[in-house]
Design goal:
Layout lengths: L2 H9 L4 E5 L11 E6 L22 E8 L12 H11 L3 E8 L10 H9 L2 E10 L2 E9 L3 E8 L9 E9 L2 E9 L4 H15 L6 E6 L7 H4 L2 H4 L2 E2 L15 E6 L4 E6 L12 E6 L2
Parallel strand pairs: 3-4, 9-10
Antiparallel strand pairs: 1-2, 3-14, 4-6, 5-6, 7-8, 8-9, 10-12, 11-12, 13-14
Helix pairs in contact: 1-2, 2-3
Length: 286
């Protein structure tokens, strides 16, 4: 099923089959689909935007991180379908999503967590930092391969907004690797504390380690450069925010060993789907 067809079925409120891992990336043509679940989000399809697919580096896995702003685009329209379409056209193997917000989903639709998991990945781990009667808010890691040893780390600082980090072992065919997804806070003191917490996690890297997410780092001070940079020296450096005129490098992918990152890019055509641009990287495993 193509990304455009999957997105249109979401808009039409049609049953969307769940992907089961096979050869190829998430949502690829070689993915098998089973057990449809009814969902309901109806919006007109957006105008098509030009994007030239970036070839995948040979012998790598493709990881992606994206703050989807709850599915609310820069045009002020809530549209999870175009989020799904953007993800699927890149065929990532693992994707980390921040600001997943089921409070925006119109009843009786499934929650945004469920919509994204059924459309994007056969396997997933969620970290919900806010659970309320009207819905849930947080982040998720979705994968076409099994995720082992999941851990949800509480990296909340003092009385600030609740923050979580997801740690998983990804069972890729070429070999397992560790992935840590995070969403940092807005204050400098908060981010420094969160960076120190993640350094303790990242330090244990007997195998390839990938850390990705929205680090809310407006500059490049010691909170990230001094902490994460020593443990995970390879990093992306793309400007991702605001999506319509990117100036800040808020969203990043780090990895160890340094030579494992073979290439990275952002999708500028996703500028209407969120206020952040998605970042993708090809990482060699083993």
């Amino acid at each position: 099923m193509s990304s455009r067809i999957a997105a249109q079925r979401i808009r039409n409120g049609e049953a969307l089959p769940r992907p089961i891992a096979a050869r190829g990336g998430i949502g690829s043509r070689t993915t098998r689909w089973v057990a449809p679940t009814q969902i309901d989000t109806s919006h007109p399809a957006p105008k098509s935007q030009t994007f030239t697919p970036v070839p995948r580096s040979t012998g790598t896995v493709r990881v992606m991180t994206w703050n989807i702003h709850g599915g609310l685009g820069t045009d002020r329209r809530f549209d999870l379908a175009r989020v799904v379409e953007t993800i699927l056209r890149h065929q990532p193997d693992v994707v980390a999503l921040q600001e997943v917000d089921s409070r925006r989903t119109v009843a009786p639709a499934s929650s945004a967590f469920r919509v994204l998991r059924e459309a994007v990945g056969a396997h997933g781990v969620e970290a919900k930092s806010i659970v309320a009667p009207d819905g849930e808010y947080g982040q998720a890691v979705l994968s076409r391969w099994p995720l082992g040893s999941p851990q949800i780390h509480d990296i909340t600082h003092a009385e600030r907004e609740p923050r979580r980090a997801i740690e998983v072992e990804v069972a890729a065919p070429a070999g397992g690797f560790r992935l840590i997804a995070a969403h940092f806070g807005l204050s400098l003191k908060e981010r420094r504390a969160q960076a120190r917490a993640l350094v303790a996690i990242a330090r244990r890297h007997p195998a390839t380690t990938v850390m990705l997410g929205d680090f809310n780092e407006w500059f490049w001070p010691a909170s990230l450069r001094g902490a994460l940079g020593r443990e995970l020296p390879a990093r992306t450096q793309h400007k991702t925010f605001p999506s319509w005129y990117p100036l800040l490098r808020l969203d990043r992918i780090f990895c160890w060993p340094p030579h494992a990152m073979r290439g990275s890019f952002v999708d500028r055509s996703a500028r209407r789907a969120s206020d952040h641009l998605p970042v993708l990287a090809d990482v060699a495993i083993g």
